[in-house]
Design goal:
The complex is a heterodimer of chains A (114) and B (116). Helices cover 0% and strands 47% of the residues of chain A. Chain A contains no helices and eleven strands. Chain B is an all-beta fold and 116 residues long. The N and C termini of chain B lie far apart (37 Å). The mean pLDDT of chain B is 89. The chains are: A mainly beta (114), B mainly beta (116).
Chain lengths: 114, 116
């Protein structure tokens, strides 16, 4: 069972370059999320999408953009990467954006911005 | 969402039960208790959740005190693969229909080490 697939697994990126982190789910979940995880800060929500065609800002949206053209895909784009965006990025999904729904996470993308 | 307090770390012998406590003294009536874990270098994984009754599934059991101010996650027969950081999360039970998002607020969790 695939669940949530993130790509790439890891990446080293030069500051100022752009990059898109890919996230695909095969569970037909309505809601999808992007988190970043930094040592000592836990997971922080970057952007979310309650359903295809809609997106919203989380706690730390600056420097990131997302799109939700269909149910399955939720790419995260860094337009001009900065070193502070070095982090581990996790994509997650849930059947719908309700608190009793369980969130399922991908394996993560480790990004280093130099 | 109510705050939770968990021990920083715990050890458990392989094959024994691991009992992970969580205090949530400010929990309100419509808040559920969720447990997730994160094995090193992997994404968080849902374990179990409950409101006020004890819950059991194939992974674990959740015991919630009668006053709901604390709970215990029980892994009945811990294995080396259960070594992970375990997060106790308290969340409201309503659905958000306009704006907002059901983000998960992960605290620092408990680092459980299962020893051979």
């Amino acid at each position: 069972t695939a669940g949530i697939t993130q790509a790439p697994t890891s990446q080293i990126l030069a500051a100022g370059r752009s990059m898109t982190l890919r996230c695909t789910q095969d569970m037909r979940h309505n809601a999808m999320y992007w988190y970043r995880q930094d040592l000592g800060l836990g997971l922080r929500l970057i952007h979310y999408s309650n359903t295809a065609g809609t997106t919203g800002k989380g706690e730390v949206p600056d420097g990131y953009s997302v799109s939700r053209a269909n149910t399955d895909d939720f790419p995260l784009t860094l337009a001009s990467a900065v070193p502070s965006q070095t982090s581990v990025y996790f994509c997650a999904s849930s059947p719908q954006s309700g608190s009793r729904d369980i969130q399922y996470f991908g394996a993560g993308t480790r990004l280093s911005v130099l | 969402d109510a705050k939770t307090t968990q021990p920083t770390s715990m050890d458990c012998a392989e094959g024994r039960a691991a009992n992970l406590p969580c205090n949530h003294s400010t929990i309100s009536g419509n808040e559920y208790v969720y447990w997730y874990r994160q094995i090193h270098s992997q994404g968080p994984q849902y374990i179990i959740h409950g409101l006020k009754n004890n819950e059991t599934n194939e992974m674990a059991s959740l015991i919630i005190t009668e006053d709901r101010k604390s709970s215990t996650l029980i892994l009945p027969h811990a294995t080396l693969r259960d070594t992970a950081v375990y997060y106790c999360i308290v969340r409201v039970a309503h659905y958000i229909t306009q704006g907002g998002s059901e983000k998960l607020v992960f605290g620092k969790g408990t680092k459980l080490t299962v020893n051979p």
